[in-house]
Design a protein that fits this description.
2 helices; four-stranded antiparallel sheet; 191 residues; 11 strands; alpha+beta
């Protein structure tokens, strides 16, 4: 039975916290060693981005990876991992709450009647990450794009479309990741 691992990152230290981000990985079956590799992959993503966040911002990868049934979303089991302790943070105190950038994930699949895509919001970015035109500064954008490209290249990383209105869930491998040179606003969150 196809299984997917749900890796959750929690964020603290800013207005509106706590925040959460979820990334999905495939396994058939999804093993403990796969879960550990994927926790490390998500840590590498956020660890690279951390330098552009405010100094108060903190992230932690949750050590329990939930293993779900791809079609129903039912919890099958939990795999225990040992996340790396994060020690790298931003350097400025100023930030705009809920404003930052977004990693966009593409797949070649259709879920329901739409292309299966995903997004990871990168908020809040520190004050020094913007340029005079009001978009993302070049150095910041380069780092965000590198982190996004690296995670998109992980073989079992992808996007999961949840079961909706009687139709089963679908997981598809990520075929690419991008970060646009524009500011994104996080108006709501969902797990």
């Amino acid at each position: 039975m196809p299984e997917i691992g749900k890796v959750i990152t929690s964020f603290t230290g800013f207005t509106g916290a706590p925040g959460y981000s979820t990334h999905y990985f495939f396994g058939d079956p999804y093993t403990t060693s796969t879960a550990q590799d994927n926790v490390d992959d998500v840590y590498a993503y956020w660890g690279l981005i951390a330098q552009w966040m405010p100094s108060s911002w903190r992230f932690a990868i949750q050590p329990e990876v939930q293993v779900l049934n791809e079609t129903t979303g039912a919890l099958i089991r939990v795999e225990a991992t040992t996340p790396i302790t994060a020690t790298s943070w931003g350097t400025v105190a100023e930030y705009a709450g809920g404003a930052g950038a977004v990693s966009s994930w593409t797949t070649g699949a259709v879920h329901g009647s739409k292309q299966l895509r995903g997004r990871t919001f990168i908020v809040p970015l520190g004050a020094g990450t913007y340029d005079a035109s009001g978009t993302i500064a070049a150095a910041t954008l380069t780092t965000l794009r590198t982190a996004t490209t690296n995670l998109a290249a992980v073989a079992n990383f992808g996007v999961w479309g949840r079961p909706v209105s009687g139709a089963g869930g679908d997981w598809a491998a990520c075929t690419g990741g991008s970060v646009k040179d524009k500011v994104a606003w996080l108006s709501s969150r969902r797990d």
